[in-house]
Amino acid sequence: MICLTYLLTFALCFTSVISNNCRCSYGSPCWPSDSDFQALASQVSQPLIRPAPPATPCYNSASGNCTDVRAGWFNSIWRSDQAGAADHTNWETYTFSNGTIQACYLNTTLGVPCQQGGVPVIGVDARTPEDIQEAVKFAAKHNLRLVIKNTGCVFDSFFPLILGLTS
Question: pLDDT digits over 129-155, tens only?
Answer without folding.
Answer: 999 999 999 999 999 988 888 765 544
